Amino acid sequence: IARNGDVVRRWEQPGDRWERAELLPDGTLLVVGMDDLGYRYGKATPSSIPDSSRYVMKLDWSGAPVWKRKLQAHHDIALTPDRNLLLLTFERRMIPDIHSSIETRDDFLTLLDQEGKLLGSRSMLDAINRDPDAFPLEPVEPSLRGGSPWVDLFHSNSLEWIGPVQSFPKDEIYRAGNILVSIRHQDCVAIYDWQEAKFIWSWGQGEISGPHDAHMLENGHVLLFDNGLSRGWSRAVELDPLTRQIVWTYEGNPRQSFYSASKGSVQRLENGNTLLAESDRGRAIEVSSGGETVWEFVCPYRVDERKRAAIVRMVLYSGELAEALLAASD
User: Fold this and answer.
1) Backbone angles phi, psi at 52, to 5 degrees
2) Of the candidates 114, 122, 59, which has an alpha carbon nearest to the alpha carbon of residue 83?
């Protein structure tokens, strides 16, 4: 959409549900989706998601599928500096130390090439088992969201391949090939070393609650959406990961006026402002460093007559990219 709300380009797969869509610089679109679980106006969203419904798909600029791979993918997919595709997947595992009779959902960091071929996959639970000091595992109650019961131990929801960026401080957490992950059910964000298959930094337990959408800024700080499940109000947080000090926040005034129990996104813009999606309320705002709202978007679609459709994430693409893609399609 343009900043005035006009629809510029639309992609869809009727009947399906997409958790994440990522527009690449060449105009192709990556989606993390589920077969036949799309929203129907006025009907309740399915309460469980069969594992077999999940997939990753690449579409061209016109919306035609390039390839589709059945994969237990969820929440996020991102382009690496080598133009490979980094995404979140999961496997069900029986882990008696976590639950004696119910499977645990173990999240994986998975790498594909541009054609969807599997290049590698790393278990987050195995990394914690090798180094329990990475972050202590908080207990998680069983859930039916996966169809059959499971313990959704991590519920990771965003990932980002770090660097290389010249302005990063000299520290191991900024090594090229590290991955920044937001882990909702462990109330933390963490950095994972892909080559060593281990977590090397984490923060958040006792400070944030049910986070989403963590990003590494060019100054080396981490920006994230803190949903605030235990508080009942949300905020954006900018953290210096070396000092572990929060250096900037955005909160509603009053605090409860800005809240999304699920989803949520945050993006630092080139002008220094921050773009936020208050997802559950179907609202996005751009705020200044002082917290002033300078732009607002309200989702025009509705779940029913009383409730707006959620905005899972709001991302601003550069004007140069948008203009180049639109010009190439004319």
Assistant:
1) -70, -15
2) 114
Quick one: which H or E segment has residue 326? Answer: helix 319-329
Of residues 74, 87, 90, 89, the one with CA closest to residue 19 = 74
Please give the biggest Cα pair distance in the chain: 59
Q: What would the pLDDT profile of 295-328 be if each residue is shown by its tens digit?
A: 999 999 988 888 899 999 999 998 888 888 888 8
Q: What is the pTM of this model?
A: 0.95
Reading the block at residue 294, the tokens are 């300078």
Q: How far apart are CA 290 and CA 311, in angstroms?
A: 24
Residue 237 has pLDDT above 90, yes or no: yes
Give the torsion sign (CA, 92, 211, 164, 202): negative
- Residue 42: pLDDT band with limits 50, 70, 90: low
CA distance 125 to 109: 11
* Environment class of 278 (CB within 10 Å of its CB; exposed 0-12, middle 13-18, buried 19+): buried
Q: Are 178 and 162 in contact (CB under 8 A)?
A: yes
